[in-house]
Amino acid sequence: MARWEPNARERLERAALGLFAEHGYDATTVAQIADRAGLTKSTFFRHFADKREVLFGGQDLLVERFGDAIRNAPPGATAAGCLAAALEAAAAAFTPDRHELAPQRRAVIAAHSELQERELLKRARLASAMAEALRGRGADDTTARLAAEMGVLAFSTAYARWAAPENRQPFTEIARAALGDLQARAAALGESAGAHR
Amino acid sequence: MARWEPNARERLERAALGLFAEHGYDATTVAQIADRAGLTKSTFFRHFADKREVLFGGQDLLVERFGDAIRNAPPGATAAGCLAAALEAAAAAFTPDRHELAPQRRAVIAAHSELQERELLKRARLASAMAEALRGRGADDTTARLAAEMGVLAFSTAYARWAAPENRQPFTEIARAALGDLQARAAALGESAGAHR
């Protein structure tokens, strides 16, 4: 019975976000999502564990992409260079045709504290994965953890700016600027280091 | 019926951690905790919403202490100076007589993924509270968010070192060193800022 369905994942995602917006997240069922996407429930479950994962499956992919990009950065790359590579790799998930989905996703999450908690946990996992990849390249633990938090901040700032309805700038440009801003702030926060030793 | 009980909160905490270690977190009831502490269930519920809060109530107090310390830092204090003040204020919660409780608490949390998630969420709230207090002092949003993450990293590193069974160093010293290390790393991460702009 299992047929290959072109773009099933994206069709399910669009159907789900539409239904969440129209009827509310709690009232929407997997059967309704599959139905609107013109697919079966079993196709839904091949792509997502449950309806919540429609909102967060993308973050699991990001964890992989960020980790891979850091592991594959040139041997001489600094920790900051690795963050830049990770953000570059994330850009593939934030294409113009996905732009309209972002505000829908944000609105659903903003309305449910349980989903906000899930988002925070996914971000913590993203930071752990980045720190792990940086340690794998020989970064000391303190640098790895701080750089990973900077990476997550750069990503979340860039995502929020990219997702703004009026934005037309590509994700890569926005992310590069966000990382540069954070690096400048990090330099300033580091300057007074002597005073607290 | 409600009597004032000296040190009720700490007695309940010690009783709970002992029971969690002996019988497991899931098997322990509020009635057993109150009983071992020589107190009533209603006294328990005046201090904690449920048994989980015995583990996390301290983090709510930290959120207040960190925020107050940042708000009350001298007008000319830098963001890094505010973090130092916050860590200094936290030290009151990490006195030598509480040292033995820390490994018990960590062991319970390490054994339960739901409690680990709660810990991550409490840390995210700690970061939000610090960022909010820094913005309240006029820090720009990027500096506030980055400094808050540095503060949480300094705190969690310091707490882990302080809680190590063999440690005898006061929390304040450990926290000061952890913050200094992070500032040095921040300076290094900021150095290559030009390359990514």
What's this model, at a glance?
Two copies of one chain form a homodimer. Chain A has about 200 residues and is mostly helical.
Q: Give the assembly state of these chains.
A: homodimer
- Span of the ends, CA to CA of chain A: 67 Å
Which structural class should the secondary elements of chain A be placed in?
mainly alpha
Give a count of the beta strands of chain A, DSSP E runs of length 2 or more: 0
What would you report as the Rg of chain A, rounded to the nearest angstrom? 19 Å
Strand content of chain A: under 5%
Largest sheet of chain A: none
Low-confidence stretches of chain A: none
Helicity range of chain A: over 70%
Total helical elements of chain A = 9
- Largest contact between protein chains? A-B, 40 and 40 residues
Mean pLDDT of chain A: 91
Shape annotation of chain A: elongated
Instruction: Give the topology string of chain A: H per helix, E per strand.
Output: HHHHHHHHH
Tell me what you see in this structure:
Two copies of one chain form a homodimer. Chain A is mostly helical and 197 residues long. Chain A is built from nine helices and no strands. Chain A has helices at 8-23, 30-37, 41-47, 51-71, 79-90, 101-110, 113-136, 141-163, 171-191. The N and C termini of chain A lie far apart (67 Å). The model of chain A has no long low-confidence stretch (mean pLDDT 91). Chains A and B meet through helix 5, helix 7, helix 8 and helix 9 of A and helix 5, helix 7, helix 8 and helix 9 of B.
